[in-house]
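Troubleshooting log. The previous structure file for this entry was overwritten by mistake, so regenerating from the original sequence record. Sequence copied from the archived sheet and checked twice against the printout by T.R.
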Amino acid sequence: MRYVRLPELLTELAIARGKGTYPKIILQYKKPALLILDEWLLYPLKETEDRDLLEIAETRYKKSSTIFCSQFDVLGWREISSNDKEKSTEKIDGAVATIMALDRAIRCGNDTG
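Regenerated output below.
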């Protein structure tokens, strides 16, 4: 089990990216049987942060459990995650990456089989 506040996770990943230790650090968040992400969507995410979370969610999908702790109702997550995002020329922009990560979390959480 691993608990982390989302701002701390994102700061750690940004520093790791600069130091060249990103793959090693992100692997540490893929391994735990249970990952608890606190302060989910407390503030708007940058595009690189969206992608980091998608990377973690994608590799954990149907393999391990992730709990997203937030002060916001789950039904409002998509709206919050896509607010104030500029349009991107990337194929998958930050808002889409966040929505994809949320989709994996919600589907896995509702999966009965």
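The chain has five helices and three strands. Archived copy saved in two places this time.
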